[in-house]
Design a protein that fits this description.
Order of helices and strands: EHEHHEEEEEHEHEHEEE
Helix content: 10-25%
Distance between the termini: 17 Å
Radius of gyration: 17 Å
Number of helices: 6
Structural class: alpha+beta
Number of strands: 12
Largest sheet: 6 strands, mixed
C-alpha cells in the first residue's frame, strides 16, 4: 500500500515576518496537498489575544480548524504555554491514531520544544506506523541534546522492524543532526534519497537553508516534493515538504 506525508511549520497561522493572519489560506493550501498524514509545527492551540484582535480568528484550535473533514484523527502536543494561550506540534491523519504521547525536549527555559510521538494503524493487514513530529531548538548545543533524546526514545519505544517517519522543523543549519540520525537510527532523508540533496525550505520567499526534513525507516520512498507555491510572503516563512511512501510486503 502507498500513503503520503507532508510537513509544514505554519508559523502560528501568520505570514512571513508576522505581517498578516493567513490561517484560512493555509487551511485551503494544506487541503490541496491532500496528504494522508500531516505533520504541523508552531500550531496555535489557544490564543486569547489574537481571538480578540482578529474578527475571523478560528473558534477552534488551529489543528482542529485545519483538519475539518479532511483528517478525522488529530493529535496535538502542547509545548509552549503562556498567559494568553499555548502552541505546539500536531499530527493530522486519515488513518486511526491508536496511541500518542508528547515529550518535553526543551533544552533550556527560553525555548519550549516538544516531540509528538503517534502510532498510526495504516490498515487491517498493515503494520503500525510510528510518527514522530519534532521542532528542534535554534541553538546547536540544545539541538544536540534534543537529537540524543529523540534517538533514545526511538531505540526504547519503536521496534526495529516497525515502519517509522520522523518529520518536522529541525533548525539544523549545519547538517549535524542529519548525520547523527542516519548513523544511529538507520533512517534516510527522503529528498537525499530521491534527489541526492536535502530540500531548501527557509525562508520561503528565497529558500537558502535546509531546515525541514522527512526521515523514514522500514518504508520505500516513491517521490518527494517541495511546495514553494504558497505565494511567497503571504504564507509561512517555511516551505512545505511532501513525500509518498510504500509499505514493503513482508516476506513469507
Amino acid at each position: 500500500m502507498q500513503f503520503s506525508v507532508a510537513t509544514y511549520n505554519i508559523h502560528k497561522g501568520f505570514s512571513h515576518l508576522t505581517r498578516r493572519m493567513v490561517i484560512h489560506e493555509l487551511k485551503e493550501r494544506l487541503h490541496g496537498l491532500s496528504a494522508d498524514l500531516l505533520f504541523l509545527q508552531e500550531v496555535q492551540g489557544v490564543n486569547q489575544r489574537h481571538a480578540g484582535r482578529y474578527h475571523d480568528w478560528p473558534l477552534k484550535p488551529q489543528h482542529e480548524f485545519i483538519a475539518d473533514t479532511m483528517w478525522h484523527e488529530v493529535a496535538y502536543g502542547r509545548n509552549a504555554v503562556y498567559r494568553h494561550g499555548h502552541h505546539g506540534n500536531a499530527v493530522l491523519s486519515r488513518f486511526p491514531i491508536v496511541a500518542q504521547e508528547n515529550a518535553d525536549i526543551s533544552a533550556h527555559a527560553f525555548e519550549s520544544r516538544g516531540l509528538l510521538h503517534c502510532e498510526v494503524k495504516l490498515g487491517d493487514r498493515a503494520p503500525v506506523l510510528h510518527c514522530l513530529n519534532v521542532h528542534l531548538g535554534l541553538f546547536e548545543r540544545g539541538r544536540r541534546w534534543q537529537i540524543r533524546a529523540l534517538v533514545d526514545r526511538i531505540n526504547q519505544t519503536v521496534p526495529r522492524d516497525a515502519p517509522m517517519v520522523i518529520a518536522g522543523d529541525f533548525n539544523d543549519w549545519r547538517r549535524k543532526a542529519d548525520r547523527t540520525l542516519t548513523e544511529l537510527l538507520g533512517v534516510y532523508e527522503v529528498f537525499d534519497e530521491v534527489k541526492g540533496r536535502l530540500a531548501r525550505t527557509f525562508p520561503s520567499v528565497l529558500p537558502v537553508f535546509r531546515l525541514d526534513r522527512i526521515y523514514a525507516r522500514g518504508l520505500t520512498v516513491v517521490d518527494a516534493r517541495v511546495h514553494y507555491a504558497f505565494p511567497g510572503g503571504r504564507m509561512s516563512d517555511h516551505a512545505a515538504l511532501a513525500a509518498t511512501f510504500e509499505v514493503p510486503r513482508k516476506r513469507k
